[in-house]
Design goal:
Strand order of the largest sheet: 3-2-1-4-5-6-7
CATH architecture: 3-Layer(aba) Sandwich
Distance between the termini: 39 Å
Number of helices: 8
Largest sheet: 7 strands, parallel
CATH superfamily: NAD(P)-binding Rossmann-like Domain
Order of helices and strands: EHEHEHEHEHEHHHE
Bound molecules: NADP nicotinamide-adenine-dinucleotide phosphate
Radius of gyration: 18 Å
Shape: globular
CATH topology: Rossmann fold
Number of domains: 1
Number of strands: 7
Length: 259
């Protein structure tokens, strides 16, 4: 299915690895121009080298928690490609803490990386989409519906806020023909997760998932790209959970003959 993104420009925040990198790759496979950002220039250069054979890629050092950086990133992208049409607010991160353990500084950092980054992304995108229309996708998490108690406690509530943020911006941008949606990924085998997850945790997560495995990053990327495309032209202010059916029934092993 041709998604109608050929020649359009797509921005992915945090595109040097993981879900963001695969989203950039998927956009390129659809013929879009792609701009990615991150904080580490070496990782960005490596990502650009890997992606460049697929199409036009711009990689810019920018911190998504800085409004100035996001505005500069949007401006450079629009100048380089002559406008922009899709924007993916992919940056987000959690730290392992129970609710009572967060220091004020850790709270500020978590709010900045999970929530403020999405606000600055929407604001920066709007400037260049308001005359042409466009599509924004916020990357939230399954944790917005179903978080982990005692660990990364603030992550779920903030990812729920990111989802609600998309609804508010969808309402405010509708008259400009800008659609805003959210994707809620389940556990996804990104390099960061691969490095940090124990085999026990992996098995526990897989057993709670109807499809009995973690997602590959590209399995999150394609739903994001679809929501940005004209094939999703009547979809706005909604969220799409891509979790392989995690935590939806009390007996996820039924289909495997375990109940
Ligand atoms: N992996 C999962 O299981 C999972 C599940 C649900 C939701 N999610 C969500 O999906 C998104 C992507 O997750 P991921 O696992 O692919 O992450 P990841 O592998 O840790 O990659 C994060 C990307 O974002 C960049 N980044 C991080 N902080 C940034 C900042 N302040 N400004 C600019 N770039 C920044 C990183 O590059 P630099 O470090 O060089 O900046 C990197 O390119 C996140 O919002 C995450 O919360 C992930």
């Amino acid at each position: 299915m041709e998604l109608g993104l050929r020649g359009k420009t797509a921005v992915v925040t945090g595109g040097s690895r993981g879900i963001g990198f695969e989203t950039a790759r998927a956009f390129l496979q659809e013929g879009a121009n792609v701009a990615i950002c991150g904080r580490d220039t070496i990782a960005l250069d490596e990502a650009r080298e890997k992606l460049s054979p697929l199409g036009n890629v711009l990689a810019i050092k920018a911190d998504a928690t800085s409004r100035v950086d996001m505005e500069r990133f949007a401006l450079k992208t629009a100048q380089h490609f002559g406008g922009l049409y899709c924007w993916v607010n992919n940056v987000g991160a959690s730290i392992k803490r129970a609710g009572e353990q967060y220091t004020p500084e850790e709270i500020r950092k978590t709010v900045a990386v999970c929530f403020e980054s999405a606000v600055y992304g929407c604001q920066s995108a709007f400037k260049y989409m308001k005359d042409t229309g466009g599509a924004i996708v916020n990357v939230s998490s399954l944790a917005a519906r179903c978080g982990t108690a005692g660990r990364s406690t603030l992550y779920g509530p903030l990812k729920a806020a990111v989802r609600e943020l998309a609804v508010m911006f969808a309402a405010e941008y509708a008259a400009y023909n800008i659609r805003v949606n959210t994707v809620l990924p389940g556990f996804t085998m990104t390099p960061t997760v691969e490095r940090t997850i124990s085999s026990e945790e992996l098995a526990y997560n897989e057993e709670g998932t109807l499809l009995r495995r973690m997602a590959k990053p590209e399995e999150i990327a394609w739903p994001i790209v679809f929501l940005c495309s004209n094939k999703a032209s009547y979809i706005t202010a909604t969220s799409l959970e891509v979790s392989g059916g995690r935590s939806v029934v009390l007996n996820p092993g039924f289909s495997y003959g375990e109940d």
